[in-house]
Amino acid sequence: MVQFIQEQLLFYFSLAIVFFVPGYFFMLAFFGRKNFSFLERFVVSIGASIILVDFLMLLIGRFGAYINRFSILTGVALIVLICFLVYKFKHNENSQERNELFSFSPRQVYLIIFIVFISIFIRTAYLNSSILPSSTDLGHHMYWAKKIVETKSIPNYTMRDIVVGENYAIGAPKNISDFIIGEHLIFASIGSISGLNFISYFPILTLFLIDIVTVLALFVLVLRLFENNPNAKNIAICALLLVGPLFAIAPPQAKYAGGGVIGNLIGNLLFILVFYFFARALNGKNKVFGMLFLFFSMGLFYAHHLTGFIFLMVMALFILAFFIFDFKKIKDNLIDWGKIIFSLPVLIFAVFAVIFVLLIYTPTYLTNGAVTTVVGEVTKVDHTGLPLDQFKSIVGEARITLGLIGLLLIFVFYDKKQKISYLLLASWTFLITLTSLSPQTIKLDIPSGRIANYGTYPLAIMGAFAFVSVFNFLKKGREAISGSGRKLIFSSFLLILTFAAVNGLGDSSDYFSEKNDSANAVKTFNAADYLSKNVSSSDILLSDHINVDADSWIKLFFMRDYNFSLYRANLDRYENGIDRQEKCTLEMISSPNGPESQKCFADLNVNFVLVNDMLDSSQFKRADNFQEVYSNGYVSAFYRNK
Amino acid sequence: MPFIAINNMDSNKKIIIFTLIFVFLSFVFLAYSERMQANPAYQNNWWALYFENPKDKGFNFTIENYTNNKNFHWEISNNSGKIDAGDISLDKGTKQSINLDDINASGKITVSVKNGTDKKEIYKILN
């Protein structure tokens, strides 16, 4: 128990250092206590901290120093000190300015707190079954985070794969483009500071925190986008309802936290904050906000390229829409934008960004040309667009219904004073819908299901806008409406609310029925621990992704290579002609006695195999040259006699 | 007094404080739950059997017990029949090695262990 408490204290200390402290002082240095409400400052500080810690670790790594607890804490302390001195020098006010937009009535406060409570409660209930880390993606990511902690340096994203020739061989390390450094640095920093084991609660709790902050960030964004709308607070609360407790588990929320879809989760938070600063920079013609827009955009591109790519497309569509809708004022708008773009803060940061990308760390997807793989003709079946029904089930029926009504209404209630917000939201919603349903229209080669998940946030905002606008419109005219008419309006209000609640909560209940057996993961870890003590550096281990739970975590017991152990992948990976060029890993488990398998075993020096005891051990038991050396009822390990 | 202090607090601060309290409670609960789930002995009913050294010609093996049943019966045999056998008692969450250094056999040597009705086997093939 004492150890648990000690671990917990270290974990919360690490979270504060990585997720709050540097960002808080960073914002303080730029704005003092002005321009932000407490809530905004809290949310923005978390996003800024993630980026600052990323940049700090990249800098430490670039200059050849060790990335460890001491260097990270020292770096954060320096950031805090510099920012504090700037704050003291530049700003001498002590009191927080009051912001009416963020002043809520007691009823609103209780409602918001209640919504937040339910949001956290549902996620907690779901994550309880997956809190023991076992998901494939998270295992892959944590390998790299642990690598940073163990090597105390920025990793080269490479792996050694099977080379097919006259003989099979384990090839030289090859670059892989699946990972982005920003996905791993925050976990590495928490791991370094706290010393916690990567196979523990901390990765999923960290993702859970990001998810909750994203929900709050959306709330803050909605308030700012609709700051000139008298119903801004109601729209924000309604949006909070549509992403907080309703559809709480569906991707990209708790399901992604439990599943370790790190890039999307960090990307979504930064994406929202990028739009937040974009709207504030343009609405307020504020150069420092313009600089922060760039800062958060840069952080986004260091965290997740797909989200960054979608952000660029939304921006392109927004710029097009903006100039079309405000064609008469194109010159004035260009001058306004030019004043921000060519301002000193923006230019200084742009120079910093270029230097950073060129000299400190270039994201791997730029160096290995991964960008070109997402643009062009569609190459895979799951990239061809979703049927409407599937899109509906991904983003939620209530959200898409209300959201698309909102998309129409935003033009019905189009207000020139709020053109930036309205057009940004319309561009965001329209682009995600289009790329999910018909990616070939804009020559995009990305999994359509993953794009559809990006619809969650804009459709929730649009849905909230539709809901509040319609009822506000009807409320305004209620004096002209008879008593029965008013009852009808009230009934409709309740009906839609009930539909959204039933749909949103029902959607979550589906995920609760998913079976997640942590006991199997514990057995896999026990076997992996045994093997890590007995597999020598010349031995190769083969495991199985199809029938062994938590298999992607086995590599964390060895830390030899991203592709160690070798593993039998899902069968379609061998058939699509893209993912797997070899069949050794398939054959060696499916038919270990076959001549091709025997050649694979011998050429590759695969001496240990870990398989599901019930489903795949029989073929090894029948073979003369394998001996069963470990068994726990769920997995068995075999050693090959040479 | 603390209640009055909260009542007079800025609405933003209230939202943040309550959010942090909920997050903290949730995190403590989930962290504790994970520690329990990661403990092989907690709510799990399984045991493991393995050779001490999978590569050599020795038959020393280990049993790790995560069941409530303490009693294990083991046998070592080859194609000709039983070579040795024994019983051990293992508390839940403990493990024990059985040393069989004096056995000199060849062929398929199987270690069978029974825990109640559950039986596991590991084997080596020695030429």
The general outline of chain A is globular
Q: What oligomeric state do these chains adopt?
A: heterodimer
Number of helices of chain A: 29
Distance from N terminus to C terminus of chain A (CA atoms, Å) equals 47 Å
Radius of gyration of chain B over alpha carbons? 26 Å
Percentage of residues in DSSP E strands of chain B: 35-45%
Gap from first CA to last CA of chain B: 81 Å
Total individual domains of chain A: 2
The count of DSSP E runs of length 2 or more, i.e. the number of strands of chain A, is 9
CATH topology of the largest domain in chain B: Immunoglobulin-like
Uncertain segments of chain A: none
Summarize the biggest pleated sheet of chain A: 5 strands, mixed
Text of the CATH class of the largest domain in chain B: Mainly Beta
User: Rg of chain A from C-alpha positions?
Assistant: 26 Å
Largest interface: A-B, 61 and 44 residues
Instruction: Supply the number of helical segments of chain B.
Output: 2
Structural class computed from helices and strand pairing of chain B: alpha+beta
What does this structure look like?
The complex is a heterodimer of chains A (642) and B (127). Chain A has 29 helices and nine strands. Chain A has helices at 2-19, 21-31, 38-62, 69-90, 106-127, 136-151, 182-194, 202-225, 232-243, 254-259, 262-284, 287-303, 305-325, 330-341, 344-360, 364-367, 388-395, 397-412, 419-437, 448-453, 456-476, 483-512, 518-534, 555-558, 572-575, 584-590, 595-604, 613-616, 618-622, and strands at 158-159, 162-163, 169-170, 174-175, 540-544, 566-568, 606-612, 626-631, 635-640. Chain A folds into two domains: 10-93 and 120-139 and 183-468, no CATH class; 518-640. With 642 residues, chain A is mainly alpha-helical. The mean pLDDT of chain A is 92. In chain A, the strands form three sheets. In chain A, strands 6-5-7-9-8 form a five-stranded mixed sheet, sandwiched between helices. A two-stranded antiparallel ribbon of chain A has the order 1-4. In chain A, strands 2-3 form a two-stranded antiparallel ribbon. In chain A, α13 (305-325) crosses α19. Chain A starts with a helix and ends with a strand. Chain B is α+β, with helices and mostly antiparallel strands and 127 residues long. Chain B has two domains: 2-38; 46-126, Sandwich (Immunoglobulin-like). Chain B has two helices and seven strands. Chain B has helices at residues 2-7, 11-38; strands at 46-51, 61-66, 71-78, 81-89, 94-98, 107-115, 118-126. In chain B, strands 4-3-6-7 form a four-stranded antiparallel sheet, with no helix packed on it. In chain B, β3 (71-78) and β4 (81-89) form a beta hairpin. Classes of the chains: A mainly alpha (642), B alpha+beta (127). The interface between A and B is large, with 61 and 44 residues. β8 (626-631) of chain A pairs antiparallel with β1 (46-51) of chain B, so a sheet runs across the interface.
